[in-house]
Amino acid sequence: MNTDKLSIIPKITLLGAGPGDPDLLTLKGVKALQTADVVLYDALIDETLLDFAPSAAIKIYVGKRSGEHAFEQDAINRLMVDYALNYGHVVRLKGGDPFVFGRGYEELDFADSYSVPVTVIPGISSSIGVPGLQQIPVTHRGMSESFWVITGTTSGGQLSADIAQAATSNATVVILMGLKKLPEIVELFKAAGKADLPAAVVQNGSSANEKLIVGTVKNIVEQAQKEQVQAPALLIFGEVVSLHPSFKSLIKPYASIA
Amino acid sequence: MNTDKLSIIPKITLLGAGPGDPDLLTLKGVKALQTADVVLYDALIDETLLDFAPSAAIKIYVGKRSGEHAFEQDAINRLMVDYALNYGHVVRLKGGDPFVFGRGYEELDFADSYSVPVTVIPGISSSIGVPGLQQIPVTHRGMSESFWVITGTTSGGQLSADIAQAATSNATVVILMGLKKLPEIVELFKAAGKADLPAAVVQNGSSANEKLIVGTVKNIVEQAQKEQVQAPALLIFGEVVSLHPSFKSLIKPYASIA
User: Fold this and answer.
1) Model's pTM, two decimal places?
2) Closest to A212 measured CA to CA, from A177, A189, A241, A183
3) What's the complex ipTM?
């Protein structure tokens, strides 16, 4: 840790830690942490990642979880710049990728306004990585030529208008932070004539306590309730969900009777 | 390398290497390479990544580039399974993420048909990471609540129908492998009344020779031609491109005259 204020060179690294499994951090991320004077880390960050930072580095939890808002975004922005000016290299360790609904650009913009240089290190976004770890490909030849990633919780709290349009598209649709609004979202897919479209909900993606629910638009709400799925969870709508082995067993419930 | 055939346990790891910069490999990827008996790697893979594999491991280039097709997908599938059955752990090292237009699921499916177990390790997809490294966020509050990632080159060679729909949406639109079709793509955005939408082309994203072109739907083809942009390149359409510093200077071409 740099304590000689005259020699302090403030800088900030916005670092994406990936979806949860600490081994999904990049080598570039490890190197950034190794030179950190301060680490500001979110909820959902595996704390073993902090061990890559020098033991003398200051480590501060600034997590906000839906409903709690332990730290407001403004407070995080200010903390980040204050620490950079006073201690040097601040690593802002964020879940997933900094720019996928991570409010990373707001942090970059705030740092810019104080002329503190920012480096961005992408992380594995759960939008791609969590389906992938479940061996559900977001794209697959002859099945899906695109995928559309949408937030389930907009800044205003309402459902994003993009979801209604996505429901009418041929894209694989991945929705983050949408579990609470699953019943509303499902209605949009039904209205688009897609009651039989395969759908999945993944809770705690990439972590040891990961849970996968597979079904169709018609029954996914019931399935998720039955299995008591909780946030954080990711929603997947698309034919590609049918490639998951548990989907095949689902549509042939009596096939295993010998 | 395992040479005692009786003790061979075949397995395959589909490993995403990220967009180009070798430091964007994950720790989980490093660990997989360290136990590889065979590495089958693509074009666009930085060969320094092969150094993580044991020196005795077999390393085979199976790259196909647009137009060349050095290896057909069927040949790669067979090679992958043959090596797993004969040598043990095959790491299939792929650019970006294995399931983002990487034909990863075809490889998984083929391995499945031979009962060779497959592990998937996600990689940083260039669709998110390349804009991010340029400090262009694919999402930003009040500007973009979603992003839509589409291939510019479908299996049939024509333009994906998804692009026309994406052009009418509010999503940030990211198109991979679409440079050759940029003039056609731009027409779709113009037809949707978006001639003034900010647009960017990034060549060799995340590599030392990265090149960024910024403009609008109206002039991006001309800009890309003037700068002689070549594949591999990624296209970004959306208001978020306006956040890039070079866009600000673009729309005020005379502002710097002192």
Assistant:
1) 0.94
2) A241
3) 0.93
